[in-house]
Amino acid sequence: MTAAGGDQPETVAERKMRFLFGLRSKGVTDARVLTAMERVDRGLFVRGHFAERAYDDMPLPIACGQTISQPSVVGLMTQALSVEPRDTVLEVGTGSGYQAAILSHLARRVYTVDRHKRLVREAQGVFQELGLVNITAFSADGSFGLPDQAPFDRIIVTAAAEDPPGPLLAQLKIGGIMVVPVGQSDTVQSLIKVTRGQTGYDYEELRPVRFVPLVEGMGTE
User: Fold this and answer.
1) Which domains does the chain have, with CATH numbers?
2) Which of 25, 69, 72, 82 is catalytic?
3) Residue 124: per-residue pLDDT
């Protein structure tokens, strides 16, 4: 990779500076989130042909027909989640493991679930390599959450549902927050922040997004 406007290879420091500047320019301003994203090398979660694009602000294909979200969207979703240091977080859609790794620097405990066993296995390998001992990854149908570990302080869903899934809403603590993409197609989706109150749920629409659909059942690999 070369630096913009020149032929010299980009240094690690320059790459980090460009990466963080890009996040800030897209609205990621929370200091804790920026620090966590600086500590997690996205390059470790992107393999093969697309590895050289790991530090660009764009979604990239990963195994099992899934994607790793663009860093600015990861940052904005994490920022909206408002994770506190003692929180227990559920992530639905492990994917590459990148989002869970960032959450591990912000929360006390992260549970992550994916319907594709291969993705969970590969993500667990990266978590182990990075020494992230506060992440527990499961291969399961994430649309039903993890009732045995519920309730959760925070829930983040990295695939689009037609509506915020009822089982996940039920697993959210009073005062808890869920961030989920909602939409009936891959071209019309909104990122929704759900806050559970004593008497119901408050919904806030944050921004347009585009995610793979949330699918019930287990994957084929």
Assistant:
1) 12-209 (3.40.50.150)
2) 69
3) 96
